[in-house]
Design goal:
globular, 7-stranded mixed beta sheet, 43% helix, alpha/beta, binds S-adenosylmethionine, two-stranded antiparallel sheet, Rossmann fold
Length: 304
């Protein structure tokens, strides 16, 4: 095990520390590849992965510790994130269909159909990309008012060209909307990319009206460890292929498995939504847990 400095270690665990009270302490963080806690207590292992200030005596002995995985640079740095999606934008629709073998449209349609919104809903399509969800919502609810929001201007230009009427360049961690503005917030393959998942969930919850919905579609880590490895390897190989063919840059799509390695499972995300203040969460799993659709309802006003 290569010794890691406190700062580098902190960077590796930042995303995990953000996602729940149980994980605030580095020693409580869950990482990939579980290993036994008692092994952690051994001097050598302890000294190699924990910053000096961490006291293991405060950690209950039943906690599972996993080996840390690096958070992708794009996820830590909004400029790199924007650069990456700026380059991807003209090919985005093609690559989404290619990666999902055309199933992405069906998943998104299911997300919209099962949401059961009011007749003329006000909807935020967050991390809208080229505006897939906005387009589907307008088709299903002709009276809908949709707002497409994304951190990458070039993506929004494509969304506007497809008819998204109100594109807004915004970061999910600081949404420029008043509280309770939307009946529903749709997020397609977005949450995995957000720098601070807990903060963006708080923002999404804030701008949703009481009784409103969050619908999210994203990649997830399959629970089965062998499947997880195969899935990550498969996404990596696919990423290298399409990155080289479309951009001459393999990294551009190997970001997907890299960002996924530091994300959660479908069940883990459901638990996170409940902790974030949603009262009812439903999830659907596709391709053996590698893709998940979530519907989460915000508590209505006056609910007990
Ligand atoms: C994989 S694309 C998803 C596009 C579309 N929602 C879909 O379902 O196909 C992810 C999008 O998230 C945007 N994004 C990344 N970080 C963001 C942030 N912090 N706030 C808002 N948008 C962000 C990117 O610019 C990119 O357009």
């Amino acid at each position: 095990m290569v010794p890691v400095s406190s700062e580098r270690f902190a960077a590796r665990v930042t995303h995990l520390l953000e996602i729940g009270p149980k994980m605030r302490h580095p020693a409580r963080a869950c990482f990939d590849n579980p290993c036994n806690f008692s092994r952690l207590r051994s001097h050598k292992f302890h000294a190699s992965i924990f910053p000096r200030s961490v006291s293991l005596s405060s950690v209950p002995p039943f906690v599972t510790i996993r080996v840390p995985v690096q958070v992708p640079a794009e996820k830590r740095n909004p400029r790199l994130m924007r650069d990456m999606f700026h380059a991807v934008a003209p090919r985005y629709d093609f690559i989404t269909r290619a990666f999902s073998y055309g199933m992405d449209r069906r998943w998104k349609r299911t997300g919209v159909e099962r949401a059961r919104l009011p007749r003329n809903p006000v909807v935020l399509d967050l991390a809208s990309g080229t505006g897939d969800f906005s387009a589907l919502i307008r088709r299903q609810y002709p009276g809908a008012r949709t707002v497409a929001a994304d951190i990458t201007e070039r993506m929004l230009a494509f969304a506007r060209a497809r008819g998204a009427p109100h594109p807004v360049c915004a970061d999910a961690c600081a949404l420029p909307f008043a509280a309770a503005s939307f009946d529903c917030v749709f997020v397609g393959y977005g949450l995995r990319n957000f720098r601070n998942l807990a903060l963006s969930l708080r923002e999404i919850e804030r701008v949703t009206r009481p009784g409103g919905l969050l619908v999210s579609l994203d990649f997830f880590l399959p629970r089965n460890r062998l499947l997880r490895r195969l899935y990550l390897a498969y996404l990596y190989a696919q990423g290298v292929f399409w990155g080289l063919v479309l951009h001459g840059r393999p990294r551009i799509y190997t970001y997907i498995p890299d960002s996924l390695r530091t994300f959660v499972s479908i069940d883990g995300f459901s638990a996170l939504l409940l902790r974030a203040g949603y009262c009812r969460v439903e999830a659907r799993s596709y391709i053996l847990g590698g893709i998940g659709l979530h519907w989460a309802a915000k508590e209505s006003e006056g609910a007990e």
